[in-house]
What does this fold into?
Amino acid sequence: MREECKQTGPSLSAQGYAHQGQKTKHMDWKLEESAQKTDSRVLQEQEVILEDTGEDSISESFRLLQIDVECEHREGEMLPTGSAMWCSKNVQRKQRHWEKIVAAKKSKRKQEKERRKANRVENSGICPQHSKRFLRSLTKERLLEAKHSGPRLCIDLSMTHHMSKKELSRLAGQIRRLYGSNKKANRPFWIYLTGFTTDSPLYEECLRMNDGFSSYLLDITEEDCFSLFPLETLVYLTPDSEHALEDIDLNKVYILGGLVDESIQKKVTFQKAQEHSVNTARLPIQEYMVRCQNEKNYHSEILAINQVFDILSTYFETQNWPEALKKGVSSRKGYILQNSVDDGQPKELQKAKLLEVS
It folds into this structure.
């Protein structure tokens, strides 16, 4: 019996191995069949996608496949610059373009630095460099001194309730430029913003457009300018006045109408000054300037408040009306200085020329 068992043992084992081999082949056949089905399904989906996307997408897909093949072929290659991975010509072109931009910016910064250094050396004996902190304290000292002994300028903001949002934005910008010019002036004015409430749309617009507006060194009051100062000290500057401003008197308070009116209502500020029996004056544009020809035949003496202030500030420092008017009145207003017309011609011919222009 033992011998029979020994003889039959190996045959049974061989049968088991054969049976297991058949199972393995069956599983492999099933896996191959499943893989074929998966491949056919993927191919069908790709065909549907290609039909939907059209010829452009097909060409794009082949282009990407071509790039991938090229990258695989050159994967082991080393660039001369030491880069570990090969890049396409498009990527290399973009890289070179970016490197040029970076180099140009560095060169520009270097040139600007050298220019500033040269200016400091050139002006070292004339205008010594001061720190920003010192300049701020100097500006503050000048403005506070103007509050006690300088000329006074009042911006009448009591007429802003009829203005649109666009006009309010323009007026807020003019106030910012006016204050900036006053800070830079060697002999600044002391500024009053009258008829100005903190809950008004203009105040909100000034806070939005002007950085640090709440810390401006000037007076803001809700009072009207006519009740804030004695009427005999007021001079309302309006282009409709018959009297030209001759000089700036430290005992007077000069008023500018804070009005941006795109509908161009005439004599608004002049009528307001007459209602309160206040003296009026206009800038001496007619006395020192003449009309010049332009395409639109446009001539206007109406200026923004910051332009009027630039004229007043320049005159107060130089005591020269032509120089002051040249700074504040642009050629777009249709006026030029009289000496700009004089070309060495006889006065009779010059007068005739001016009459033709006017």
